[in-house]
Amino acid sequence: MDENTSSYAADPTQMYVKLAGNDAVTLWNMPDIFLQKEKYNYPFGFNFPLSGTVVLTDGIAIIKGTKNIEAAKKFYEFVTSEGSLLIQAEKFYRIPARSDIPKDKLPAWISGNPFTAMELDWNLIAEKESEWMKKWDGEVKAKN
Question: Please, is 106 exposed, middle or buried when counting C-beta atoms within 10 Å of its C-beta (0-12, 13-18, 19+)?
Answer without folding.
Answer: middle
